[in-house]
Write a structure and sequence with these properties.
Blueprint (H helix, E strand, L loop, with lengths): L6 E3 L11 H4 L22 H5 L10 E11 L2 E11 L4 E5 L6 H8 L7 E6 L2 E2 L5 H11 E5 L10 H11 L7 H8 L15 H13 L5 E5 L7 H16 L5 E4 L3 H4 L4 E6 L2 E7 L3 H18 L1
Parallel strand pairs: 1-3, 4-9, 4-10, 7-8, 8-9
Antiparallel strand pairs: 2-3, 2-5, 5-6, 10-11
Bound molecules: adenosine-5'-triphosphate.
The site of adenosine-5'-triphosphate has 10 residues, from helix 3.
Length: about 300
């Protein structure tokens, strides 16, 4: 059974209608996660990054207020929802095909304009930005990891990682090399993407997504094309990006195993938030999905 929650704030800094069952039970972390935060720290909070915070850093990574998306009149892909993702958190978004996961991600990432509501990334209201500024925000303040890694085949691995910096006119200054080392590919910098395995390419895509130190990383089915072991490696990197480097990740996934790496799982159905779970294990995620479908079936 999962709790209902329309106004969704991770870990309930502003608790809405529902608080996750697992959270109430005070259950600890799952094995296989990254390191736990120390005493007095919020999950995923990294002290160094917080100490270095400037005024902009004080804002939540992502705030959605009443965000909805209608494609045609009467065809609502996303009913108005509220969602806050503080910095340094890892949120997974799940739900059956067509429930609005990609629509939510695209609106939140500034890839699509919602038909109502407000999206703020690091305090910036995306509706106030014209296309060039929005493009710049996506390039400099947002990281993307897709199922298809979207590496440029004619560029080397290192050049692919450096690309977001180069496009913004910023010299990489060793950041691409450090990013590649962080994903365990320091020795492959000069290779072409075609010379890497699928999992290695996805690791390059993660290094590229993090190279600008974005305020938020959106990952759409990042492990969808990977086998179990390789998927775990990729998820461990995303987890480490949050726990070790203070990044914020929002990941759409169909896979309960993948969702269980997140700090919180948000469940959508028919374009609405129908529940959330804090730090669930894969079996709890599976059970929640079954419960959701059963309740939906009862409603007919
Ligand atoms: N460009 C579009 N024009 C019209 N309807 C759309 C468009 N994109 C999505 N939709 C509709 O919006 C709803 C939500 O789609 P969305 O792609 O967000 O779902 P999803 O949960 O990501 O699905 P999946 O898991 O299959 O990728 C669906 O009913 C879909 O048909």
């Amino acid at each position: 059974m999962i709790d209902q929650g329309e106004g969704v704030e991770m870990f309930g800094e502003r608790r809405g209608a529902g608080t996750a069952t697992a959270e109430r039970a005070g259950r600890g972390p799952k094995p296989g996660r990254g390191p736990e935060p120390g005493p007095g720290k919020r999950p995923g909070q990294v002290q160094g990054r917080v100490d270095a915070a400037d005024a902009a850093d004080a804002a939540d990574a992502l705030v959605l207020e009443g965000v909805g998306r209608e494609y045609r009149r009467g065809s609502v892909a996303l009913h108005p929802l509220d969602l806050t993702v503080p910095r340094g958190r890892f949120l997974a978004v799940m739900g059956p095909s067509g429930c609005g996961k990609s629509t939510l991600l695209q609106c939140a990432a500034g890839l699509d304009r919602p038909t109502r509501g407000t999206v703020r990334i690091g305090g910036t209201d995306l509706a106030t930005l014209k296309e060039p500024a929005l493009t710049r925000l996506r390039r400099e303040r947002v990281g993307f990891v897709f199922q298809a890694h979207n590496l440029v085949p004619s560029l080397s691995v290192a050049e692919n990682v450096a690309l977001p910096l180069l496009l913004g006119g910023t010299p990489p200054d060793g950041r691409a090399s450090r990013g590649l080392a962080a994903v365990g590919l320091a020795g492959r910098a000069e290779d072409a993407p075609a010379e890497l395995s699928g999992g290695q390419r996805q690791r390059v895509a993660i290094a590229r997504a993090l190279v600008t130190r974005p305020e938020i990383v959106f990952a759409d089915e990042p492990t969808g094309a990977l086998d179990y072991v390789t998927a775990r490696e990729v998820l461990a990197l995303l987890r480490e990006a949050v726990d070790g480097q203070g990044h914020t990740v929002v990941m759409v996934t169909h896979d309960p195993e993948a969702a269980a790496w997140a700090d919180e799982v948000l469940f959508l159905m028919h374009g609405r938030t129908v529940g959330r779970l804090a730090r669930p294990g894969p079996d709890e995620v599976r059970a929640a999905l079954v419960d959701m479908s059963a309740r939906d079936g009862e409603r007919g």
